[in-house]
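Dear colleagues,

I hope this message finds you well. In preparation for our joint manuscript, I am sending the CBS domain-containing protein (Saccharopolyspora oryzae) sequence together with its predicted structure, so that both groups work from identical material. I would be grateful if you could confirm receipt.
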Amino acid sequence: MTTARDIMHAGAKCVNEDDSLYTAAQMMRDLKVGSLPICGRDNRLHGIITDRDIVLRCCAEGRDPAEVKAGELAQGKPHWVDAGSDVAKVLTMMEQYQIRRVPVIAEHQLVGMISEADLARHLTDEQLAHFVESVYAAR
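The corresponding structure tokens are as follows:
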């Protein structure tokens, strides 16, 4: 059985909920990623922030990214998978909620992220085509 841990990108970094969006943007640039998990003071996952979130929910609204905290953009309950989850379960969840990246958790700690690039490297062409159709076709 292939698990989430087998296909994830290890070493994901969190932006702290009290960090500014400016800090989050710099982290994304430095890490060459388009999203970051938001972790709270309790070291638990509170959400995910994307470069698009920063642009649309901060900059486009005339807000200052140096003043807006990452935690302000964490909405709802974040979706995540356990490191031991079967890849089929991961795909089902991502397709159901139409999400393109998902944090991987082990023992209540962030251990990695699964993105579309990770899926492309590890799935069969048929699995990947089904994922793409499920996530993008219904939008």
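For the figure legend, we might mention the following. Strands lie at 9-10, 15-16, 35-39, 45-50, 81-82, 102-106, 109-114. The mean pLDDT is 92.

With kind regards,
E.M.
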